[in-house]
Fold each of these.
Amino acid sequence: MSALAVRGARKHYRSGDSLVRALDGVTLTARRGEVVGIVGPSGSGKSTMLLIAGLIIRPDDGSVEIDGIEVNSASADIDRMRDLRRRHIGFVAQKPNLIPFLTAQENVALALSIDDVRATDARAHAAELLRALGLGHRLRSKPMQLSGGEQQRVAIARAVANAPALILADEPTAALDGERGRQAMGLFRQIAEERRAAVVVVTHDPRNASQMDNVFTFEDGRIVSDNPRGSDW
C-alpha cells in the first residue's frame, strides 16, 4: 500500500517578472516498508516536493494521497491538512531541533503528549523507542550532553513516536560523518521494515543509495530518472 502518492503536482512561483516552475507535473509514490530517495541539484524542486508531500504547502495543481487518503489539492482545507500531518507524517530535519531544556526522553514524549497520549504512557513509549535506537543510557541527557549522531537519533525517535505512515527526512545525514550517516540511514531502513512506514529522504550523499529501494532524480522541477535499488544515481 502506498503511504505517499503524488500525482501531477505543479507549483509555480513569481520571481520578479519571471515564472519559476518549482514543480512541473511530478508524480511519485512511496510504499509502506520502502526507503525512497529524492536527489538533484539545488533548485531542482526537491524541497518543494517535500513540503507538498508533508502537507506544508499546497500544489497549484495535482493531488497528494497519504496512506490512502487524498488530502491535498489546490483547494485543500488547512485544518484538515494540519490534523492529517500530525497523525500520519513524521519529519526529520537536517538539524535535530531538539528542545534544549528537555531530556531526550522528554523530547520524544512531547510528540506523544501533543497527540493526547497520557504522560506516563508517553514517557514509557519514548523510553522504549530510544532504547531500540541504542540510547537507553541517554534517556535523561539533555541535547547539549549528546553527540551529533545521538541528537539525530533522538530526532528520529520523535518522528516515529506516533507510528506515522510516512516519514519525511530533509538531508538527515548532511551534518554527520560517514559512519554516523550510515548508522542513520540504517535506522531509517530498520524503521521502514519493522514499523512498515514509508521513508522519503532528500539527500545529496550517494553513499545513502545502498539503503534505498528507489531513487528519484529531480531536475528543473521534473523527475528525470527513477532508479530502483542497486542502480547508479
Amino acid sequence: MNIPELKYDRHGLVPAIIQDADNREVLMMAYMNAEAFARTIETGYTHFWSRSRNTLWKKGETSGHVQEVRQILYDCDKDTVLIKVIQQGPGACHTGHRSCFYTDISGSEITQKVFSEENVYGKK
C-alpha cells in the first residue's frame, strides 16, 4: 500500500474525522501523528495521538468500542483525513453518546446517551 505524504502541523499532527461507513454519521474528530496513521493502516483499527496524555492510543482499548477501518480518504490539501469505520459497541464518545457531536449551538443535547460511561470507564 502506498501511504500518502500527509501535511502534518507543527506538532506533527493531522486531524482525523471518523465517520460511520454505513450511515455516514460523523462520530468523532481526533488527531493522528505518523505512527498513529501507520498503525491504523497496519492493524485496520483506528489509533490516535492523545494531546492531553502525550501518548499513542487505540480507540476502544479501554471500552471495547473499537473502530474497524473500512476506508481512508484525505482531503485535497493532504492535511486532514476522513476515516470510514464500522463502530463496534454502542458509541464512539467517552461521554456515553454514539457521536461526540451531540450538542447543538444553543448548548442543548440533541441525542441521548447510548451507554453508561461510569460502567465502561469506571468514572464520570
